[in-house]
Amino acid sequence: MSAVVEDRHGWVLDSRSLIDEGYSRCVRFKDAHKSVVKCRFKKQCFQMLRSHYDVSVSAAADGGNTGVLQKKDKPGKKRKRKHSELNQGEVDSQVFHEKIRSVILEGTNSLVDSARSLGYLNGETDAVKEPLPDQECSLAALCEMAKELPLVDEEEQEECVQLLVAEDGCTSHVDLFSRVTESRSDRATVVTLMGEEYVIPPHTAFLLSDFTRIQPLVHYGRTFDLIVMDPPWENKSVKRSRRYSSLPSTQLKRLPIPLLASPNCLVVTWVTNRPSHLRFVRDELYPHWGVEVVAEWFWVKVTTSGQFVFPLDSHHKKPYEVLVLGRYRSSADNPKSSSETSEVPVEDQRLIVSVPSALHSQKPSLSEVLKPHVRAEARCLELFARSLQPGWTSWGNEVLKFQHTSYFTLTPTDDRGDETTDDCTDTLTLASSSPREPSPSCHCPTAD
To answer: Which residue ranges are recorded for the region named Disordered (predicted)?
Structure first.
């Protein structure tokens, strides 16, 4: 069960279970053959066994879930700055932390205690000692190269929606960079794209492109009831690591949210703990799009034993991140717009507690916790995505990164159910039965 606990404070999520949903039986297409496999995200990616620092817990002071920072090695001599020497950003961070500290501490204690009573967050007992998958990813570089290709005409974009599995058989030769690709199968599929194998969830759509080539998503012809985004915020650690390219905050205003959002669409943005980023989202970005801020939530990162991954009062890093939730108001001069579509209220200051991934920038899926706040059969979109989710549309220049088979354990299974053994008829039938048909006149360019 992916949502282990829910109470008035929020949720405890099993992030790995959330990923695995929909992958129990996957159809694998390889070398013109089809087989059935079971896919599981690798366990070692979610084995945060210990805090990043040794923590001496002070139960009397904090209720048993926070402590004093104690490094294993003797710290080197370093000049301590006086409080008066803190810069404005650090002062703002401390003020914000003090404001929400009790919410984080009390909520986390309650949720972790409930999870432990169910046998979860009691510590990992069967740790996997295998190394983490290689996190090198060439997708962003391929997107950069694809910018040299001519843009597809708007007419063609509106008419052409390409299927993941081609109509001529089990192979997948699709244009990933300028067309939205759909998988309409009821089952996950393991396919070869650009010479690499990827696990694709059922009923999903995606566009692999950078910020300058997002137009095919606009021409896709859909609006969404839920939009989640994890922007590549500028900060010093990103620049030092060079793991991915960051995006200036002002560039985010160019995202076509008003063209992608349905009336009262719930817009959720992951924000770093940098106060300037939080102020920008609340005071500039959301008002620019016509989005009204309705709540702030917090993702709290804990070990498999339920301890904060960093001490709550650490000056180095905090064990939580912020999410800003807002509602898109389609027309400021139309008071009826908010009442025409039912709107589920969003509670403020809810917590999402989970063991974080050891993989850089892999966030937990929000599908489970946001479900009550959008209408049934809501259309969902993730921007700046690095993975896919069943039933969602996703966009980003690394949108397939965590779908690579190197992150999964693939186990052959003889349980074929109603799968045929000779061809891909069942998958193609599912595709052709979808209510959204590709245009007969559509001839999508192909890329190996």
So the answer is: 64-88, 429-448
Degrees, nearest 5: CA angle 260-265-266:
120
Q: Which two tokens stand for residue 339?
A: 């009442």
Compute the CA torsion angle 58, 61, 67, 73 (nearest 10 deg): -60
DSSP code at position 94: H
Helix (H, G, I), strand (E, B) or coil at 274: coil
CA nearest neighbour of 227 among 186, 279, 173, 268: 268
Q: Are strands 67-70 and 162-163 parallel, antiparallel or unpaired?
A: unpaired
CA distances 378 to 42, 87, 125, Å, are 30, 44, 39
HSE, side-chain direction, 13 A CA sphere, residue 182: 24
From 56, 124, 130, 111, select the one nearest 354 (Cα to Cα). Answer: 111
Sheet holding 408-412, edge to edge: 196-200, 188-193, 26-30, 33-41, 408-412
| Sign of the CA dihedral with 393 first, then 319, 20, and 208 last | positive
Give the CA distances from residue 138 to residues 97, 196, 240, 398, 404, in Å, rounded to whole numbers and listed in that order: 37, 11, 19, 8, 12
Q: What averages of pLDDT result for each successive group of 10 residues across the chain (448 residues)?
A: 90 94 84 85 89 50 41 48 68 91 97 96 79 86 83 59 68 78 92 91 94 92 96 68 67 94 96 91 96 97 95 90 94 48 84 94 93 91 96 96 94 62 35 38 39
In eight-state DSSP terms, residue 191 is E
Residues 6+ positions from 51 with CB-CB distance below 8 Å: 303, 307, 308, 309, 310, 311
Sequence ranges of the domains in the chain: 3-46+129-432
Residue 267 neighbours by CB distance under 10 Å: 28
Distance between CA atoms of residues 355 and 346, nearest Å: 24
Q: Which two tokens stand for residue 175?
A: 């244009």
Q: What class, spelled out in words, does domain 3-46+129-432 have in CATH? A: alpha beta
Biggest CA-to-CA distance, the chain: 74
| Cα gap 156→160, rounded to integer Å | 6
